[in-house]
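Provenance

Sequences were taken from public entries as deposited. Structures were produced by running a predictor on each sequence independently, with no templates supplied. The record for IS66 family insertion sequence element accessory protein TnpB from Bradyrhizobium diversitatis is shown for reference.
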Amino acid sequence: MIPIPSGVRVWIATGHTDMRRGMRSLALTVQESLKRDPHAGDLYIFRGRRGDLVKILWHDGLGMSLYAKRLDRGKFIWPSASAGAVSISAAQMAYMLEGIDWRNPQLSWRPLSAG
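Predicted structure for IS66 family insertion sequence element accessory protein TnpB:
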């Protein structure tokens, strides 16, 4: 799990990204395409064309980090927009990284009555 400090925003880069790209290239995408500062401390999540691999770019104030996660089965749920970025909460990011639909998480069990 990525230790996200409070106040850090999480951005999903909509569309798909070439997963051969590294830190510098993804940081350049954040700066030029998303019009955001890649060194401001926010997290930026990119998804590959197949949908089973994401890369997360984060600058923690000391240096840039690049995290990757590939699902063994299924695909990451992604916004349908084709350009730009969508902001999500840290909790929604945690759902997404577990392969859960972060847009509408469902409880596995709900009590029917209080007594």
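The mean pLDDT is 87.
Residues 23-32 form the longest helix (10 residues).
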